[in-house]
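pinging the channel bc i need a second pair of eyes. not urgent but kinda urgent?? the chain im working w is below, pasted from the shared doc
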Amino acid sequence: MPRDTITPADEEKIMAAIREAEVNTSGEIRVHVESNCDKDVLDRATEVFAELHMHQTKERNGVLFYIALEDHQFAVLGDAGINAIVPDHFWEDITEHVIKHFKQKHYAEGLAEGILMAGEQLKSHFPYDRKGDVNELSDDVSFGD
């Protein structure tokens, strides 16, 4: 079960990274953790992206970190607005960095660092607008299974 692996302290660390990453951007970041992924990981991440209504952000700048713990599957998925402007290999670089931590079973640390990496890109392309910015998506970690 995902909640056996991701402790409440881990959840706090992940949510703190999301809040820190979102401070200077209108971008939105979510994390979804489940046990198994019974299809292609990007297909499943796309389903979760839709289930979490991440495509409904004003600037289409949501980023999903998807993890299937037992199946050792991980994907980072960005919406159309961010995908159009991030550098080549951006998602692959984050994935590679996060997986290094996962191999040592340091899930929260890997996610937190990956979230902050994504936040840097979001900040440079989608700066925080004090007047109109609202937190469009929850910062809570969502769990499946």
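so The domain at 2-143 is CATH 3.10.310.50 (Diaminopimelate Epimerase; Chain A, domain 1). and The mean pLDDT is 87. — does that match what u expected or am i reading it wrong
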